[in-house]
């Protein structure tokens, strides 16, 4: 799998008579989606402007009811961002000072910053090498080690992240929640429409798998706003009431502040846009699965793919692994590769989009040094951070463009 030296490889790509020029492939092209829904979106925005109800209001109420029906949850509350949704979920469950929350070092920064914002202590555990999700066994070890240390904080929550659009092992985490009496808070920022089938045969969608959950509608997400937006969900009436109160400065009655909440309300324009896109998201998720399957077939046909179930890049390009209990929505299509930086440069020269989610684990971020973790403490997460590479995937991506991406990578390695 070792490529040629960069200067030799570049020359071969440019001069080989058998090499055809490859068309550019963007990592994401939001314009394609907008062109299909332009009229609906503009009409919806104009309708909101005509009501002069710009914060919460009828458009937000309507989207929340639609989201509840789509997710199969009792309560869905729109808020200003996915980061706010994470904090709201934790705070509504009364997780705060004196508490610790177990989560993953391999995620976006908001996963841990939301715990800190709630006043709790982030307690990290390593990830599963195949799915990159928080590992239940490592979580159990982290809880045991925390208890044995005599730490002042008590573990009150587990925050699994459904990374890249695949649910974490919710059988394992529910067992831990039951055993230790802790709350489950789903970071479902990347997982709208993903689902998990439990050992008893019950299937539930992300957002209804824990005590509370958080979604992001950042413009790159499967269900996306045209700006920042998020949502917190729960099936518990008491938690829902607290979500309502906390997202509006801790008010139950106007200008009477029962707690120090936050201003993290969803605006009506974003809700109106999300209502339109919600009608398309399931078809979009199905198309993402089709593209993922196409990528897998093309990589295998090119002789580049590692055997199924491998996580060692010495075996070839490690393709995404789907847990048979999960229904993946492929928010990202992430492979593991050797010589990642050289490959990215090669793709960049060919105008093929790629991205790294995430290049530095959270426990090694300078702003989180006070947590006391050190390099080498979470080896699986650290190795993944050095090898993962996200390739273009979105519903409007054409089959020929996916083939171009694979061909570009084939040229790097062959």
Automatic annotation (TrEMBL):
Classification via CDD domains: AHBA_syn
One BP annotation, GO: polysaccharide biosynthetic process
MF terms in GO: pyridoxal phosphate binding; transaminase activity
Domain of life: Bacteria
Family as reported in the entry's similarity comment: Belongs to the DegT/DnrJ/EryC1 family.
Residues modified as N6-(pyridoxal phosphate)lysine: 221
This protein's name: dTDP-4-amino-4,6-dideoxygalactose transaminase
InterPro entries found in the cross-reference section: DegT/StrS_aminotransferase (IPR000653), PyrdxlP-dep_Trfase (IPR015424), PyrdxlP-dep_Trfase_major (IPR015421), PyrdxlP-dep_Trfase_small (IPR015422)
Keywords: Pyridoxal phosphate
Catalytic residues, chain numbering: 221 (proton acceptor)
């Amino acid at each position: 799998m070792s490529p040629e030296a960069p200067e030799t490889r570049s020359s071969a790509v440019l001069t080989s008579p058998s090499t055809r020029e490859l068309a550019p492939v963007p990592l994401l092209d939001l314009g394609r989606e907008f062109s299909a829904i332009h009229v609906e979106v503009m009409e919806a925005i104009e309708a909101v402007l005509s009501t002069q109800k710009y914060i919460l209001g009828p458009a937000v109420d309507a989207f929340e009811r639609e989201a509840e029906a789509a997710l199969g949850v009792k309560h869905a509350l729109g808020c200003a961002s996915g980061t706010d949704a994470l904090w709201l979920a934790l705070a509504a469950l009364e997780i705060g000072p004196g508490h610790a929350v177990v989560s993953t070092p391999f995620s976006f920064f908001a996963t841990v910053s939301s715990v800190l914002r709630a006043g709790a202590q982030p307690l990290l555990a390593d990830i599963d090498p195949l799915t990159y999700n928080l590992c239940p066994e490592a979580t159990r070890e982290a809880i045991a080690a925390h208890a044995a240390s005599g730490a002042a904080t008590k573990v009150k929550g587990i925050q699994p992240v459904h990374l890249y659009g695949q649910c974490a092992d919710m059988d394992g985490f529910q067992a831990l929640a039951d055993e230790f009496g802790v709350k489950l808070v789903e970071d479902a920022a990347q997982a709208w429409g993903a689902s998990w089938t439990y050992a008893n045969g019950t299937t539930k969608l992300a957002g209804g798998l824990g005590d509370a959950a958080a979604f992001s509608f950042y413009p790159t997400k499967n269900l996306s706003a045209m700006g920042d937006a998020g949502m917190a969900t729960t099936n518990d009436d008491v938690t829902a009431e607290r979500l309502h109160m906390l997202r509006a400065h801790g008010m139950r009655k106007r200008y009477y502040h029962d707690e120090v909440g936050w201003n993290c309300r969803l605006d009506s324009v974003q809700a109106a846009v999300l209502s339109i896109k919600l009608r398309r998201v399931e078809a979009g998720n199905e198309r993402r699965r089709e593209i993922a399957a196409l990528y897998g077939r093309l990589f295998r046909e090119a002789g580049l793919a590692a055997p199924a179930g491998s996580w060692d890049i010495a075996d070839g390009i490690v393709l995404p692994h789907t847990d048979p209990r999960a229904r993946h929505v492929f928010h990202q299509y992430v492979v593991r590769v050797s010589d990642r930086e050289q490959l990215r440069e090669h793709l960049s020269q060919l105008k093929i989009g790629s991205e790294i989610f995430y290049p530095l684990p959270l426990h090694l971020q300078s702003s989180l040094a006070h947590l006391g973790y050190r390099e080498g403490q979470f080896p699986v997460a650290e190795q993944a951070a050095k090898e993962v590479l996200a390739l273009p995937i979105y519903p409007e991506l054409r089959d020929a463009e996916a083939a171009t991406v694979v061909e570009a990578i084939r040229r790097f390695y062959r």
